[in-house]
Amino acid sequence: MNKQLRNALLYSLLILFAAAFVFPVFVVLINSFKSKLYISSEPFTLPDAESFAGLENYISGLEKTGFLASFGYSLFITVGSVIAIVLFSSMTAWYITRVRNKLTSLLYYAFVFSMIVPFQMVMFSMSKIANILYLDNPIGIILIYLGFGSGLSVFMFSGFIRSIPIEIEEAAMIDGCGSLRTFFLVVFPVMRPTAITVAILNAMWIWNDYLLPYLVIGSDYKTIPIAIQYLRGGYGSVDMGAMMAMLVLAIVPIIIFYLRGQKYIIKGVVAGAVKG
Length: 276
Known about the structure:
It contains 14 helices and no strands. The protein is mostly helical. It has one domain (58-272): Orthogonal Bundle (MetI-like fold), CATH 1.10.3720.
């Protein structure tokens, strides 16, 4: 098999995989413009003159879910959590990578171990403790996301920091920079690809997360996934048109964010996997 044929087969396979991932999003999009009856009977057909519902599903969904308020809660929690994870996990990774002793080694392996602990093992005790410590609000849940998101983030930052020559930091300290100035003026700018990768991965997780906000803050501060779930009525009835429309509105911001930063993902993941 020559090289051109291999490349053609590889590209065809990748196109099939891409189509398989995009198809569900496409189905949600076309159904968001259909009336409820046709969503159930003809889910895979394009809207026509008879089935087209215009913006009716979007208007209905916005009214029933209080989408704008939920969007605000989701945006606040996601942005706050991502900033906290990127800032504190990068500083932690820099410290435990540059300061080598038994304590930092123990901390590093504790962060790595936290990645393999299933959330289901701790979710009930975590929700109870969150209630006792008054973390069951949009600000408190940011601290909880910081805890759950730090494991992978510290692991990736630590791998990247090991590839940074320590002479750069030593030169900054000789010039009079303290630890904080060295980190923010020298180290953190170099970590930009990994920081963006960590931000994207955590933003996609937090924005789409349903279980943790449901357990911690419940219906008092409904995020988008929780608000969409409330479109399910009694006896299993579901307003499919409004649900499809709200899913489209929920997907769009995270897709835009991902497309803006996707070029950094592979670079950041590879850099974060460097062995020390």
